[in-house]
């Protein structure tokens, strides 16, 4: 029974309750039908106290509630709130959620292709849109009080991550920043940086999953627990977890079943009983098929499930396999509901396009409760799958890893078929961070008591390694920030060169680099203390021993250099002598395992040798094939001949000689010993050492003898201290070079970009030229190339479809490069313009190399890719979807995505292109007219592309 409170305690508690009820948090909590978690309450209190917050919590733990509280505060205070997300699908989802709560009049949406109520007090947008608003000094920023950056860990993305840092650095000081991140292992470091650039920021980390996660391995028909005793359900305890011994035994059994074919040759046959046991074991352990997995999970009540397959084709194939297997997860009422929703959502798609898009096969899968989800699908199709999954009408989704990045699609179970994926360059093991992100979808808050992660058994699986993946929570946030050309001109335009440099030094990238330098600096400091001690140890009362030690080192280095030169000359002479050998020469092998008398069977020089050139197998010189006096036939290498070799005699090799016949070898070796066994080889005389006649060595020896320290009784003791001093000093210099390489790296890159842009007349110290102002309005990977094309009038006179084709080369990047097949491009003016774009890129590439701007480091202009030019041209020319997709050999989702990116850049070009006179001189001589046509045709190209499947939108 609880103790009754005293009057004073009751009064104090009442005061606390009254104070809490007076806060903005109290009415906000009433909007939810569940209690907020402790970390959510802490974050909201920090926000209300005027602090910025960084919230790092597992996927699905409800961290967006903190972002929604920022929206609540902004509306309560009469200020604006911008809610930013990394992808349009997330923006659309969050916009729908906020409209449901606050009404369409108070919430707006801004993405690359949607603008809804953009002046509302609450606007959901992609992060790039906010970055562009900051650089443009948009009036919409007036009255901005809060910015929520959802999925801020995208900052690690090597293609887009820099945008997050640009926003964080450039937001006005008056704006409170709410950063929401997945669980990262260096949240405190990121928080320290936010504290530095944004002011008082509270870091709130929660590692506790709202729904416990159980880890399993499915082998054959059985689902095994990964851990023998699960006590740390994804962060709820700290007890040590042991790997299930059954899994370890299965792995051992599988390894022991592999035997070498050599065993059979030796007559060791596996006994019948062993074979029978192996058959029974194999029947128990196999990788189950996809329909089998889904059926088993359905039987165990573990659906809905997301099955991650790291391949788009694999996702589509998995759905077909389930359909062919007759799998049905929906009853009749669910099937009818699915059809109703699908027909409503796809009503705007023309009937002729539905067949091209594989609509009927897709619908059949949905009606059975099965679907694929990947970037190659039409956005409308993906959104329908997401809606049906959340409603429980789709129970099994086969998805690529992109589904794990933010989309709100929690499941009861997550399945991983393999722990290896293609990373763009090679097949690599997934990291602990990726594993955590993927399995984080398992367990629906408020619905499931527990979530499940199921990994399918694969041949060669190591259960201990899997347990390491599942138990490691290392997902460090690493900055991918790099200055770009557009960033440089925008910064200089707003702040001038010096202040821009200072701003870049405040980036998270530089913050991390500086922190890594701290440990190295401490080592340098320790080394310097050691150097002082060594210097004292080598002090000589007769003179400067450091100077004497340097003379000794110089002498040793010169002697070593001459010795290497002599060895190289001897090797070269030996190689020349080997090249002169002929079949039948009798030689004496000077060293090695086969030293002694030998008969040359083949000189080992390639037949096609021209002007001293040898094939790869003879890269280290000739490799003569010889018969030794001991009857061995061996191919020797240059290492066996440290000195030149000469034939001491010759003998005829019989035509009937067969090197594989022991009898032939025995007979010829006997003739060899009879012919030359009595000859004693001449000992090679080494010439006079080069050091004996070297003037530099003579001078150094004289200086050494004349030095005062040469006569010191303790000279060798001092020399030992001097050698230690020299080694430590060399190591210290190497550390100092590492520090220098990591310090001011971002600013040095900015300086190189500034110099290149100055050379091209985009910048003049703190001044941005007219060309620079044009570049400031062009965002994208090939911003400078686009600006140079506008400047040179490359696109003047092109019709809208031709312009769309050319602009596609600025955004498109093939998933897999195919240099063997030249992409199809439109003819005429478009082909000439594309060729000119590639030539301009070549000039820029040479200029970047000259200024040491390295594409490998994420800075610079990649080569334009013409692979989408024909598809863009066809679509803008009004061709049917069927015809365009058939020729492009591209999924509808990819086609729509690339079209929307082309539309985005066309919009930038329309805004940046000179209105008339600026391009006149570029086009005056070719009869295209005196004014620029680019801006007008860019707007027409947008309209030409924005039809059919490209125009379908899920918002507004």
Key descriptive features of the protein:
alpha/beta, 956 residues
Shape designation = globular
Mind summarizing the main beta sheet?
8 strands, mixed
Q: Kindly state the number of beta strands.
A: 24
Distance between the termini: 58 Å
Strand order of the largest sheet: 4-3-5-2-6-7-1-8
The gyration radius over C-alpha positions equals 37 Å
- Helix share, percent: 40-55%
Content of β-strand: 5-15%
Number of continuous helical runs: 35
SS class: alpha/beta
Query: Segments where pLDDT lies below 50 for 5+ residues?
Result: 231-239, 259-270, 608-617, 917-930
Average predicted local confidence, pLDDT = 81
SSE diagram, text form:
Layout: H1 7-21, H2 25-29, H3 38-48, E1 52-56, H4 64-77, E2 80-85, H5 88-102, E3 107-110, E4 115-116, E5 122-126, H6 127-136, E6 144-149, H7 161-170, E7 176-181, H8 187-198, E8 201-205, E9 213-219, E10 222-225, H9 245-256, H10 261-265, H11 272-284, H12 290-299, E11 305-308, H13 312-324, H14 332-345, H15 351-356, H16 359-367, E12 370-373, H17 379-391, E13 396-399, E14 413-416, E15 420-422, E16 427-429, H18 432-439, E17 451-456, H19 463-471, H20 485-505, H21 508-537, H22 545-579, E18 585-589, E19 596-602, E20 625-628, E21 633-635, E22 649-650, H23 662-676, H24 695-706, H25 715-742, H26 745-759, E23 763-764, E24 767-768, H27 770-775, H28 783-792, H29 800-811, H30 828-850, H31 869-876, H32 881-888, H33 892-912, H34 920-923, H35 934-945
Parallel strand pairs: 1-7, 1-8, 2-5, 2-6, 3-5, 6-7, 9-17, 11-13, 11-14, 12-13, 14-17
Antiparallel strand pairs: 3-4, 9-10, 15-16, 18-19, 18-22, 19-20, 20-21, 23-24
Helix pairs in contact: 3-4, 6-7, 18-19, 20-26, 21-25, 22-24, 29-30, 29-31, 29-33, 29-35, 31-32, 33-35
């Amino acid at each position: 029974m609880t103790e009754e409170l005293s009057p004073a305690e009751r009064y104090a508690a009442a005061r606390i309750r009254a104070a809490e009820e007076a806060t903005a948090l109290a009415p906000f909590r009433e909007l939810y039908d569940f209690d907020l978690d402790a970390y959510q309450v802490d974050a909201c209190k920090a926000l209300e106290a005027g602090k910025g917050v960084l919230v790092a919590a597992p996927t699905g733990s409800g961290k967006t509630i903190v972002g929604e509280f920022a929206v609540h505060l902004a509306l309560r205070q009469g200020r604006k709130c911008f809610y930013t997300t990394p992808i349009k699908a997330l923006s659309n989802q969050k916009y729908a959620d906020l409209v449901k709560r606050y009404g369409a009049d108070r919430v707006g949406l801004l993405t690359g292709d949607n603008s809804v109520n953009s002046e509302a007090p609450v606007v959901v947008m992609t992060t790039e849109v906010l970055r562009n608003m900051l650089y443009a000094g948009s009036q919409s920023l007036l009255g901005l009080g809060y910015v929520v950056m959802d999925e801020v860990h995208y900052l690690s993305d090597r293609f887009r991550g820099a945008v997050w840092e640009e926003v964080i650095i450039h937001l006005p000081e008056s704006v409170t920043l709410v950063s929401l991140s997945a669980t990262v292992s260096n949240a405190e470091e990121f928080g320290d940086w936010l504290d530095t650039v944004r002011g008082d920021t509270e870091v709130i980390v929660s590692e506790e999953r709202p729904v416990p996660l159980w880890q399993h391995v499915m082998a054959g028909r059985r689902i095994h627990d990964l851990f023998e005793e699960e006590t740390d359900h994804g962060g709820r305890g700290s007890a040590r977890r042991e790997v299930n011994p059954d899994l370890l035994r299965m792995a051992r059994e599988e390894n022991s079943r592999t035997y070498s074919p050599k065993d059979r040759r030796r007559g060791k046959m596996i006994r019948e009983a062993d074979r029978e046991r192996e058959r029974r074991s194999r029947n128990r352990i196999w990788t189950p098929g996809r329909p089998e997995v889904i059926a088993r999970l359905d039987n165990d009540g573990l659906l809905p499930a997301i099955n991650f397959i790291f391949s788009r084709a694999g996702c589509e194939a998995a759905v077909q396999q389930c359909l062919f297997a007759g799998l049905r997860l929906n009853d009749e009422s669910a099937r009818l509901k699915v059809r109703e929703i699908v027909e409503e959502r796809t009503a705007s798609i023309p009937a002729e396009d539905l067949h091209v898009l594989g609509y009927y096969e897709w619908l059949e899968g949905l009606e059975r409760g099965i679907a694929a989800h990947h970037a190659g699908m039409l956005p409308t199709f993906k959104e329908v799958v997401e809606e049906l999954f959340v409603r429980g009408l789709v129970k099994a989704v086969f998805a690529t890893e992109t589904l794990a990045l933010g989309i709100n699609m929690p499941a009861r179970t997550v399945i991983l078929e393999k722990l290896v994926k293609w990373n763009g360059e090679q097949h690599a093991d997934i990291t602990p961070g990726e594993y955590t992100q993927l399995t984080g979808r398992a367990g629906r808050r408020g619905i499931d008591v527990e979530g499940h992660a199921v990994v399918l058994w694969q041949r060669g699986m190591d259960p201990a390694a899997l347990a390491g993946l599942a138990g490691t929570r290392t997902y460090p946030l690493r900055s991918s920030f790099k200055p770009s050309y557009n960033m440089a001109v925008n910064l200089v335009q707003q702040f001038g060169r010096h202040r821009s440099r200072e701003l870049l030094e405040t980036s998270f990238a530089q913050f991390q680099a500086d922190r890594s330098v701290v440990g190295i600096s401490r080592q340098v400091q320790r080394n310097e203390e050691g150097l002082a001690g060594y210097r004292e140890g080598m002090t000589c009362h007769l003179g400067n021993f450091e100077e004497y030690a340097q003379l000794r080192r110089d002498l040793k280095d010169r002697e070593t250099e001459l010795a290497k030169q002599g060895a190289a000359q001897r090797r070269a002479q030996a190689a020349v002598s080997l090249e002169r050998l002929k079949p039948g020469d009798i030689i004496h092998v000077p060293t090695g395992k086969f030293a002694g008398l030998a008969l040359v069977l083949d000189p080992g020089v390639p037949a096609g040798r021209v002007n001293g050139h040898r094939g790869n197998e003879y890269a280290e010189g000739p490799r003569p094939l010889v018969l030794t006096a001991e009857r061995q036939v061996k191919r020797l290498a240059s290492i066996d001949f440290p000195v030149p070799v000469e034939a001491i005699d010759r003998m005829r090799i019989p035509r009937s000689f067969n090197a594989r016949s022991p009898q032939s070898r025995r007979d010829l070796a006997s003739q060899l010993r009879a012919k030359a066994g009595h000859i004693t080889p001449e000992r090679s005389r080494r010439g006079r050492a080069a050091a004996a006649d070297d003037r530099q060595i003579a001078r150094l020896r004289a200086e050494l003898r004349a030095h005062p320290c040469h006569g010191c009784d303790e000279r060798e003791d001092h020399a030992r201290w001097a050698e230690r001093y020299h080694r430590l000093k060399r190591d210290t210099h190497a550390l100092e070079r590492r520090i220098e390489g990591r310090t001011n790296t971002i600013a040095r890159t900015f300086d190189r970009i500034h110099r290149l842009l100055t050379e091209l007349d985009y910048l003049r110290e703190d001044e941005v030229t007219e060309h620079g102002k044009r570049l400031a309005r062009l965002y994208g990977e090939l911003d400078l190339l686009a600006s140079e094309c506008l400047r040179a009038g490359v696109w003047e006179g092109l019709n809208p479809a031709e312009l769309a084709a050319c602009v596609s080369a600025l955004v498109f990047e093939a998933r897999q490069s195919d240099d063997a097949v030249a992409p199809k491009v439109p003819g005429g003016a478009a082909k000439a313009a594309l060729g000119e774009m590639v030539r301009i890129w070549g000039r820029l590439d040479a200029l970047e190399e000259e200024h040491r701007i390295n594409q490998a480091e994420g800075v610079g202009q990649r080569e334009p890719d013409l692979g989408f030019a024909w598809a863009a041209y066809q679509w803008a020319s009004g061709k049917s979807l069927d015809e365009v997709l058939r020729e492009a050999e591209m999924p509808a989702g990819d086609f729509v995505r690339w079209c929307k990116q082309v539309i985005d850049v066309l919009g930038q070009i329309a805004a940046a292109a000179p209105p008339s006179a600026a391009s006149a001189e570029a086009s005056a001589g070719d009869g295209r007219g005196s004014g620029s046509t680019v801006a007008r045709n860019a707007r027409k190209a947008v309209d030409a592309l924005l039809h059919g499947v490209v125009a379908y939108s899920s918002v507004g």
